[in-house]
TrEMBL record:
It comes from the Eukaryota. GO terms for biological process: glutathione metabolic process; L-phenylalanine catabolic process. One of its GO terms (molecular function) is glutathione transferase activity. One of its GO terms (cellular component) is mitochondrion. Gene3D superfamilies: 1.20.1050.10, Glutaredoxin. Residues 73-208 form the GST C-terminal domain. This is Glutathione S-transferase rho. It comes from Amphiprion percula. InterPro entries: Glutathione-S-Trfase_C-like, Glutathione-S-Trfase_C_sf, Glutathione_S-Trfase, Glutathione_S-Trfase_N, GST_C, Thioredoxin-like_sf.
Amino acid sequence: MIMLEEKQLQGYNQKLLAFEKMEHKSQEVLDINPRGQLPSFKHGNIIVNESYGVCFYLESQFKNQGTKLIPDDTDQQALMYQRMFEGLTFYDKVLTVIYYEYFVPEGERHDSAVNRNKEALVTELKLWEGYLQKLGAGSYLAGPSFMLADVVVFPTVGYLFRFGLSAQRYPKLGEYYGLVKERPSVKASWPPHWVEDPKGDEDTLKDL
């Protein structure tokens, strides 16, 4: 949705579905995406179901419209792709901690696994802190301008602070979060339940 806003494609049809109601496994979704996963995306008769794939598709189809999200500069482009795909590992480590009890059946849960997952996430957070520190104040993930890496990785950062990550403990990520959340595209696509309940579950990551 950030991508659609950045490419000035406002007015697109959208439907909010609830995981807890298993709406992502409805026949309506399965007809578009046999995996029963979200997001599912359709443009005319073209269907693309992976977030990264959708974003690449939109940048390719509308590259001369809205924000230019893949830079021409070779060094910046390389760093942007690097951060984009590192973002997949970042996202996975965040979800493993936040949704441990959702993913792991009660009889298979172990404190040692919880601690190991948290340690892995701390290591990952320190890595991203270092990336942002190296780029300097006011930077985005791959340089001075907002790029495709920011489109796909910012939602992960949003999750972190939604679940109580300390901006004092991770100041560069906190600064980045504060910078990007003010973009019109991010404001327009902010999850409605986050708007209704701005606090979220702030205890989950507060001690991380």
